[in-house]
Design brief:
Blueprint: H1 10-18, H2 26-36, E1 41-45, H3 51-65, E2 74-77, H4 81-94, E3 102-105, H5 111-123, E4 127-130, H6 132-139, E5 151-154, H7 157-162, H8 166-174, E6 181-186, H9 191-200, E7 205-209, E8 218-224, H10 230-240, E9 245-249, H11 253-265, E10 270-273, H12 279-290, E11 296-299, E12 312-317, H13 324-331, E13 341-347, H14 352-362, E14 367-368, E15 378-379, E16 404-405
Parallel strand pairs: 1-6, 1-7, 2-4, 2-5, 3-4, 5-6, 8-13, 8-14, 9-11, 9-12, 10-11, 12-13
Antiparallel strand pairs: 15-16
Helix pairs in contact: 2-3, 3-4, 6-8
Length: 414
């Protein structure tokens, strides 16, 4: 289905065309008509399916084609600054040929930004994208009015609840008119999300697309190695695999700093993102990475959901993520929408149980690739969690038994 089939306003179609969108993804095909029909939505879709455009486009079309006052017409609440920035950038591109105004409101920036946010809230902006804590700060100063609000979007709702924003979300919702259109998007549907949906949605349309499964176009491979072999393997992969933009995930910011430092020494054009950076530094790095001036970015899980860059065609898990959901979100940074991508995971001897649990969630083993000969012997893949067991890849204090084997022979352990 093409975007021209939705009967969007011509000025919005210009923005869609300029953004390079042609064919709608499955979640867009299912969600957009319901939003245009005025329905509340609860949607669960795998990461990278195009859900941002799925809620932005019909909202923008409504604001273009219907009269609205100068107050805030749509509020989009997201868990992280990075996601707020990304959605704000989407908005700017799609609305370029329209008269829709928007602003992203998030913490971690300077006083000038706060003043600009206050002005936008007082004078009115059509669409506000915000993080919960920052919006609460403005609400508490008694100049925010949502009297004219027509749309509320909760994006990455499961993530927001996991981060402890339940009370903030409730407070924000209590400030909104009860007559509105509410759109809730969540990567997963635990009971707490279902309870929230029952509380704030009115006769919603329910849309579920490939929950907790990576996009089919992502080529998944893994390498079984000793921990001390990971750095050499990453250098080898970056040298031998063609890519436009590579995103490398580490579980700890110390690992991010060390890996970025070592890659820089190896003459790799690399940048890093973690919680120690100032917000302006993060934005500068994301801008350079998104424009492909910086081809390699090393990051913590702060970016596993908070980045939406279509050119990422290689994701490397330097550390095995803590659970299957984190794995799905990490590798979902590649193969965005209709693109293809590759996701590689480095599995140390201590991480084998965790990765086996991830394979259980996926419902199939991930191909174990051959390790380059020059790296030397590698472990056998012998996780204790196999075909059963708990979902966390641990289970007591027993360690799996490992044996060094000649290179590559341990890499196909299934």
């Amino acid at each position: 289905m093409r975007f021209t089939d939705f009967n969007f306003h011509p000025t919005l179609l210009e923005g869609i065309d300029a953004s390079g969108y042609e064919t709608a993804t499955p979640v867009q095909e299912q969600v957009i008509p319901h939003i245009m029909a005025g329905k509340d939505i609860i949607a669960s879709a795998q990461t990278g399916t195009g859900k941002t455009a799925a809620f932005l486009l019909p909202m923008m079309n409504h604001l273009i084609t219907h009269k609205h006052d100068s107050q805030v017409s749509a509020l989009i609440v997201v868990p992280t600054r990075e996601l707020a920035i990304q959605i704000g950038q989407h908005l700017e591109g799609l609305s370029y040929f329209t008269d829709i105004s928007s602003i992203a409101i998030y913490g971690g920036n300077d006083g000038q930004n706060f003043v600009a946010e206050k002005k936008a809230l007082q004078l009115g902006a059509d669409i506000i994208v915000c993080t919960p804590g920052r919006m609460i700060a403005h609400i508490n100063m008694n100049y925010v009015s949502f009297a004219g609000l027509q749309f509320l979007v909760l994006d990455e709702a499961d993530r927001m609840l996991d981060m402890g924003f339940q009370d903030d979300i409730n407070l924000i919702i209590n400030q909104l008119p009860k007559k509105r259109q509410t759109l809730l998007f969540s990567a997963t549907m635990p009971d707490k999300i279902k309870k929230l949906a029952q509380k704030i949605l009115h006769q919603p349309e329910e849309i579920y697309i490939a929950i907790s499964k990576p996009a089919e176009k992502i080529v998944q491979r893994a390498y079984v190695v000793f921990e001390e072999q990971k750095l050499s393997l990453v250098k080898n992969l970056l040298q031998t695999i063609p890519f436009k933009s590579a995103l490398i995930f580490c579980s700890r910011k110390q690992n991010v700093k060390q890996l970025a430092r070592e890659l820089h020494r190896a003459k790799v054009n690399v940048a890093e993102i973690h919680s120690d950076l100032e917000q302006q530094e993060r934005e500068d790095v994301l801008l350079g990475f998104g424009s492909q001036r910086i081809p390699v970015l090393v990051a913590t899980d702060i970016l596993s959901r908070g980045i939406d860059i279509d050119t990422i065609d290689l994701v490397i898990n330097y550390d095995v993520p803590n659970d299957g959901e984190d794995y799905v979100h990490r590798i979902g940074r590649t193969a965005r929408a209709e693109a293809e991508g590759m996701a590689l995971t480095l599995i140390s001897e201590k991480e084998q149980n965790k990765f086996a649990a991830i394979e259980q969630l996926l419902g199939k083993p991930v191909e174990k690739s051959l390790v380059p000969q020059e790296l030397g012997p590698v472990p056998v893949y012998q996780p204790r969690v196999r075909g059963g067991g708990n979902n966390h890849g641990g289970g007591g204090n027993r360690r799996p038994q490992y044996h060094s084997k000649p290179r590559n022979s341990g890499g196909r352990g299934r």
